[in-house]
UniProtKB/TrEMBL annotation:
This is histone acetyltransferase. It comes from the Eukaryota. One of its GO terms (cellular component) is nucleus. It comes from Chloropicon roscoffensis. Residues 1-66 are annotated as: Disordered. The keyword Endoplasmic reticulum does not apply.
Length: 458
């Protein structure tokens, strides 16, 4: 007979130990919009001060009904960087900022002070205040957008509405030709596309769609292999030794090819932080730059131009797509706009404000053109002569040469203060030999007659 074991006897004096129930994990902190945090950025893997702009739920509350921060994705703006780097991040990439010094730094980054011209003051000297006129002059020189305090009440209301609507970019990614591009900014696509994570573009007709499958079907049917409109420039060889393919410019009338131009504006708005993007394109010409190969014309960038600019603007909007940036194409677009101005017999200037990248391209272009002319021209030149030869507005010439210390103010006017040695020194820095160039002999374009009615502003 097998004995049945009895209960285990606990040694005398040993107390019974109760097992502790498993601990419920503490819910993760929920970060509200406006919270200052440290965030690990995707662009360099480092932590940077940031601000939570928005959040969206991707999970549920815990079993007790408490709200858990881990159930959200957070849209953050890196305070030290442009909005183009804003992104959605998971909770694990965020950590709170509690140090007073770090919070003070965040506050200074959130509200950058307006640049104030000032005297190098000694004891008793007062800092020179920025008057409204002085601030406006500074904005004009540096092509910056006007500060909020300089706007009218109605403009402030519109600005606030715009900021609220565009603070979170809606489309995160696009596919265009052989490139997949992360977007930079909000763009007002139609409602059925506005919340898509990724859009697929036909690189020839710019039709956009939700899926790769739809794009493939479209490409089998689409007959276009270049932009609509008229080809007004075609190079026979690449624009420089750095490029593989020749380039072309296509002039497109916004009134005749409205759908293409609207799609172009929506596409460009994904990479431009301009105040508005318009479906009303009929009052503009669009000049699309393409690379040409055996497959067709691949869009590189474009600029638009108001058909009847009362202010003398020769360019309204300019974009080089991110996949073609840092290849000299921005300056090529600018150069072409000035070649058209020369054919019109006018001086031109871009519409303000310029984007940050647009401003860099313009300053580089103006510097390159003016230095090259000062180096090669035989004889004396005035600022007016430079304007006539280049079609660059005199104000832009003066501001550019002032940064190079090649102009001085004498008896109420600006005059050139140039030596060949100074020009050569600047040329070494700017490396003219690497720049792309327009062959003006290959432009097949004539100025358009001015429209009878006044054009709408963009």
């Amino acid at each position: 007979m097998v004995a049945t074991p009895g209960p285990v006897q606990r040694p005398e004096g040993l107390a019974e130990v109760e097992e502790e129930p498993p601990k419920t994990p503490e819910p993760k902190r929920v970060y509200e919009a406006g919270t200052q945090v440290s965030c690990k950025a995707s662009f360099d893997g480092q932590n940077h001060p940031a601000e939570v702009v928005d959040r969206r739920r991707v999970g549920r509350t815990d079993t007790a009904g408490a709200d858990d921060g881990g159930a959200y994705l957070y849209y953050v703006h890196y305070l030290e960087y442009n909005k183009r780097l804003d992104e959605w991040v998971e909770h694990g990439r965020l950590s709170p900022i509690t140090s007073p010094a770090e919070l003070k730094k965040c506050d200074s980054l959130r509200s950058p002070s307006v640049l104030s011209p000032r005297h190098d003051a000694g004891p008793g000297q007062l800092e020179r205040k920025v008057t409204r006129n002085l601030k406006r002059r500074y904005d004009e020189i540096h092509h910056t957008a006007p500060a909020v305090e300089d706007l009218t009440p109605a403009e402030r209301t519109l600005e606030k509405e715009h900021e609220e609507k565009t603070k979170v970019k809606n489309i995160q990614m696009i596919e265009l030709g052989k490139y997949e591009l992360d977007t930079w900014y909000y763009s007002p696509f139609p409602d059925e596309y506005a919340s898509a994570f990724k859009l697929f573009f036909c690189e020839y007709c710019l039709k956009y769609m939700h899926s790769k499958k739809t794009l493939v079907k479209h490409m089998h049917k689409c007959q276009a292999r270049k932009p609509p409109g008229r080809e007004i420039y075609a190079s026979t060889r690449p624009p420089s030794v750095r490029h593989k393919n020749p380039v072309c410019f296509h002039e497109i009338d916004g009134a005749k090819d409205k759908r293409y131009c609207q799609s172009l504006c929506l596409l460009s708005k994904l990479f431009l932080d301009h105040k508005t993007c318009y479906y009303d394109v009929e009052h503009f010409w669009f000049y699309v730059l393409t690379e040409r190969d055996v497959q067709g014309h691949h869009i590189v960038g474009y600029f638009s131009k108001e058909k009847n600019s009362q202010e003398g603007f020769n360019l309204a909007c300019i974009l080089t797509l991110p996949s073609y940036q840092r290849k000299g194409y921005g300056k090529l677009l600018i150069a072409f706009s000035y070649e058209l101005s020369k054919l019109e017999g006018k001086v031109g200037t871009p519409e303000r404000p310029l984007s940050d990248l647009g401003l860099v391209s313009y300053r580089s272009y103006w510097t390159r053109v003016l230095l090259g002319l000062l180096r090669d021209y035989k004889g004396s030149l005035s600022i007016k002569d430079l304007s006539t030869l280049t079609a660059i507005r005199t104000e832009d010439i003066v501001q550019t040469l002032q940064t190079l210390n090649l102009v001085k103010y004498y008896k109420g006017q600006h005059i050139l203060n140039v030596t060949q040695r100074a020009v050569e020194e600047h040329l070494k820095v700017h490396k003219l030999s690497r720049d792309v160039a327009i062959d003006s002999s290959r432009i097949t374009w004539k100025p358009h007659a001015a429209p009878n009615s006044s054009s709408k502003k963009k």
